[in-house]
Write a structure and sequence with these properties.
Blueprint (H helix, E strand, L loop, with lengths): L1 H25 L3 E5 L2 H10 L6 E5 L15 H8 L3 E4 L8 H7 L5 E3 L8 E5 L11 E5 L7 H18 L4 H26 L6 E4 L5 H6 L3 E5 L10 H14 L3 E4 L6 H10 L2 E4 L12 H18 L1
Parallel strand pairs: 1-2, 1-3, 3-4, 7-8, 7-9, 9-10
Antiparallel strand pairs: 5-6
Amino acid sequence: MIMKKRIAALLLLMLAGMAAGCTAQEQGDKVIVTTFYPMYVFTKNVAKDVPGVTVTNMADQSVGCLHDYQLQTRDMVTLEGASVLVINGGGMEQFMDKVISLREDLPVVNASEGIEMLCDEHEGHEHDGHDGGEYEEELNAHVWLDPTLAIRQVENIAAGLAAADPANAEAYRANAAAYAQRLSELDEELRVQLAPFAGAQMITFHEAFTYFAQAYGLHVAGVIAHEPGEEPSTREIADTCDLVTELGIGTLFVEPQYPQKSAETIARETGAAIYTLDPVVSGDGAEDSYERIMRENARVLTEAFAK
């Protein structure tokens, strides 16, 4: 009986979402859905003050990056009411097959279209009765952490929204140009601030900051966790400790969205200090939040490298 009530409740929730979506479309409103936080901030800036357009984010901020994210019932309800879906692309949204099966008619804007991505190499997981040991390559989709690539994502979002909503095309393009100018100024500011530390070695929590490091002349020598949300093995922690000692690295960079237990273990073993860098996957939702978080990251790096 309890199970039947739960199923009935879920069906009612789905129907309510569909009805809301239909109502919005009947009224001429457009609901732009973004997959996760950086896409939300970029799209809010592109769609700013465009009449009849609402931007909503799908994944809860507690998710962080969308590594291995599984669609929730509430996500499906959100997608039912969407006019357009904005994704990061590059394999970040591994659930897209399910989205397409749910909404074959939904226009999808790939913010990373045309951006050449780096590959990460890491040891494979155990599967099909075989242990790991072979190294796998996968795309590093964290391109938004290089402001120059973020500008390209913003331009792609504007082009996609203009195609999906031609009546507001000029507004999207004008907003994107204004935001791109702000991001260009941010990039120049960070470039000047971090120039004295060119060549500095970093140990980061995971591969999120590879593009950031490449943009500003830094080098990610190693990562603490190849799979965010999963604790690294004892061997991986030992290997990271050896790398920190070998390279004389005095700082470890963690992320506020993930536990710091492994980093604390490495810090105790090596004497390295712990600092926090934010990959901009959560925030207060403000239109300037990307810029504020990136400036704070630069401040943290300046403090860490100047010690």
